[in-house]
Design a protein that fits this description.
Elements lengths: L4 E7 L2 E7 L1 H8 L27 H8 L4 H11 L1 E2 L3 H22 E3 L4 E2 L2 H10 L10 H6 L1 H11 L14 E2 L2 E2 L19 E2 L1
Antiparallel strand pairs: 1-2, 1-3, 4-5, 4-8, 6-7
């Protein structure tokens, strides 16, 4: 694993970077570590850490309202992006994928059976839909966004549930969706398999 990674922050077109230790930096970003001094490789602020270029005092004051490098580092961690190592990203993506599968299995049901969607079916739908997992975004945000739409589309198009016919469902978490407990015939027609909120 790399010994150094960076935290990047942009303000009004100006870019800033700090060099950090990968694992301690991730722990700090996740709130598991409180001492920022143990995370920093150095206290220097860069515009490009690869080239070693540094911002002027004026640019630091404009962006951070302070010259204190520890305070600047804290702001950058809070508002900026931690560049994950390949290993960190893989582990976080795997963990986030499992959380998304669990969330969908607990929250949505197959209206034909009124049972939760099996995790294996959800995992396959995510694979078929080529769902891109963002490790630093919340589960709920991703389920409501593009990831959710891709999973929905993949599950709906499985042969077991046939083709889409005249679907006119109201919009829910996964787009065309009927909440559990509502009248099945009130606004849904056709034989499209739907993921529905409990």
């Amino acid at each position: 694993m790399a010994d150094v990674t960076v935290v990047r922050y942009s303000f009004e077109g100006e870019k800033f970077e700090i060099m950090v230790k990968p694992d301690p930096a991730l722990d700090y970003k996740l709130g598991k570590k409180k001492d920022i001094s143990s995370v920093l490789v150095s206290e220097e602020i860069y515009t490009d850490s690869g080239k070693g270029t540094k911002p002027s005092t004026e640019k630091l004051l404009a962006a951070f309202k302070t010259e204190d490098k520890t305070e600047i580092a804290q702001i950058m961690f809070e508002k900026g992006d931690l560049n994950l190592t390949t290993d960190q990203r893989r582990k976080m993506v795997d963990q986030k994928r499992k959380q998304i599968v669990e969330y969908i299995a607990k929250t949505f049901v197959d209206p034909k059976t009124h049972l939760p969607h099996p995790p294996l079916r959800i995992e396959q739908a995510m694979k078929d839909g080529r769902v891109s997992i963002e490790p630093q975004k919340s589960v709920e945000e991703q389920v409501k966004g593009c990831a959710g739409r891709n999973v929905r589309g993949s599950i709906q198009n499985t042969p077991r549930y046939g083709s889409e016919e005249n679907s006119s469902c109201s919009t829910g978490y996964f787009g065309n969706c009927r909440p559990r407990g509502s009248n099945p015939g009130s606004n849904c027609t056709g034989n499209r398999m739907r993921m529905c909120s409990q």
